[in-house]
Amino acid sequence: GDPVREGQLAIEAYINGFRGFTFDQSGRLIIVMSKVDISDVGPQYQIIRIENGVIHIVSGHERGVSPDGTALVEARFENMSLVGSLHSGSLVLIESGGLRVVKGSLP
Q1: Residue 76 CB coordination number (10 Å)
Q2: How far is CA 91 from CA 7, 25, 37, 67, in A?
Q3: 5 in helix, strand or coil?
Q4: pTM of the predicted structure, to 2 decimals
Q5: How far is CA 77 from CA 6, 84, 105, in A?
Q6: CA dist., res. 60 & res. 12, Å (int)
Q7: SS3 label, residue 24
Q8: Distances from the Cα of 69 to the Cα of 35, 59, 100, 102, angstroms
Q9: Each residue of 36-74: b (16+ CB within 10 Å) or e?
Q10: DSSP string, 37-78
């Protein structure tokens, strides 16, 4: 399928490389996805939010490792999966290769 695009209708999107989902405090669907072909240039992981049936790309993440304390939207991951969300609105992501937990808020 074609890559997910900003402003695309969710019903027309092909979600490939699904890595988890949750709902934010406002009930909007948050999905983490990865590229299947890691030889592609650009972000290897994306966090998208679906609002009123429309896709919004919240952040893109390159492969790699970020130091502790890196903001969620700037972090790099080797094997990212979404675990859930906290009452504060932060997402909790886990890096299964290194058992690293990253949490933070989305814009």
Answers
A1: 17
A2: 22, 11, 25, 18
A3: coil
A4: 0.81
A5: 22, 17, 16
A6: 20
A7: coil
A8: 25, 17, 12, 9
A9: eeeeeeebbbbbbbbeeeebbbbbebeeeebeeeeebee
A10: -TTSSS-SEEEEEEETTEEEEEEEE-BS---TT--GGG--BS
Mean pLDDT per 10-residue section of the chain, whose length is 107 residues: 85 87 89 75 83 92 80 82 80 72 70
For 80, the 3-state DSSP assignment is strand
Q: How many other C-beta atoms lie within 10 A of the C-beta of residue 105?
A: 14
**Rounded to the nearest 5 degrees, what angle is found at the Cα of 82, between the Cα atoms of 79 and 59?**
80
Tell me what pLDDT residue 93 has.
80
Give the per-residue pLDDT at 40. 66
Minimal CA–CA distance to 48: which of 63, 35, 60?
60
